[in-house]
Amino acid sequence: QVQLVESGGGLVQAGGSLRLSCAASGRTFSTYTMTWFRQAPGKERQFVAFITRNDLALYYDYADSVKGRFTISIDNANNKGYLQMNSLKPEDTAVYYCALRNGPYSGGDRNYAYWGQGTQVTVSA
Prior knowledge:
125 residues
């Protein structure tokens, strides 16, 4: 089993920054994907960014709405993932979740066995 714990959410003014963390414990995988999703009130859960690590390289991508503003990263030695969020906008307000799967990115939120509890990000205008 894998446990994920997010932290770093909070209230910030538009244009500000936050860094979310996702601490993983339990099993480890040689190839894995960590993905950040978010869900705003009354809306469906939405993909934000993913990063896949295997023995050779890192692969990552972002939702168009956050490209150029958000940066995903991992600290494999310490089993942590991060989402650096800059130039935040009110429309970024949501609960942010990290999720982990054993293997490469495959799209959708149904392919993740492990989820964190979520951390609230609120961006005021």
